[in-house]
Design a protein that fits this description.
By secondary structure, this protein is α/β, with parallel strands linked by helices. Helices cover 43% and strands 15% of the residues. Strands 4-3-2-1-5-6-7 form a 7-stranded parallel beta sheet, with helices on both faces. The protein starts with 12 loop residues before the first strand and ends in an 18-residue tail after the last helix.
């Protein structure tokens, strides 16, 4: 990863993080289908986890059904355990670390839908990578059915307790509107700079 790598002024590819489960609300699946369809209509390449299960399978299926392009990236262990969606390109890698590094490399931005601990891990990793300057790519949260409201409150608590800079929190794009998020990601992808919030840590005073 190179923070100084030149990127296109357009948002050409989007990495989507989401659950390998469907969740309990139909609206989650409906949002996944709408996102995939919108990506295809806008000519954006989907980069995702490669499986044919849960919300990730719905997003990829919608992209392909609407004439779009989807790139799946899956570790060999999961490749042997789960079915794969018929996609434009399926890359089988050795482990989760290689998977996430390749997803970051192939995407111009990141969007996180509802999901579990794996989705959370992916979100916080790419968000923290942006913060420390490993990449300049914007990150968004699709907050369907107020799914992430409690997480957002926890992040505000981190700010209050001095463990998170307010600017970092405000850098995360949050909405329940897919069109708004894609426009905001596209705008930020053309204006972001490396490590915009990286600050030298304060030293403890031992006196």
């Amino acid at each position: 990863m190179d923070a100084n790598t030149n990127r296109s002024s357009k948002l050409l590819s989007l990495c989507v993080f989401c659950g390998s489960s469907m969740g309990k609300r139909l609206s989650y699946a409906e949002a996944a289908e709408k996102l995939g369809r919108t990506l295809a209509e806008q000519g954006m390449v989907l980069v995702y986890g490669g499986g044919d299960v849960g919300l990730m399978g719905i997003v990829a299926e919608a992209v392909m059904k609407n004439g779009g392009k989807a790139i799946g990236i899956i570790p060999r262990r999961l490749y042997e355990l789960v079915d794969q969606q018929e996609v434009s390109e399926l890359l089988v890698v050795q482990d989760m670390h290689e998977r996430k590094a390749l997803m970051e490399k192939k995407a111009d931005a990141f969007l996180c839908m509802p999901g579990g601990i794996g989705t959370m891990e992916e979100l916080f990793e790419v968000w923290s990578w942006r913060y420390i300057g490993y990449h300049q790519k914007p990150v968004a949260l699709l907050n369907i059915e107020h799914y992430y409201d409690h997480l957002l409150e926890m992040l505000k608590h981190m700010i209050e307790e001095g463990f998170l800079h307010k600017e970092i929190y405000e850098d995360l794009i949050v909405s329940d509107d897919i069109g708004y998020l894609l426009d905001a990601l596209r705008n930020k992808a053309t204006t972001s700079s490396a490590a915009p919030f990286l600050k030298k840590p304060e030293r403890r005073n031992h006196n």
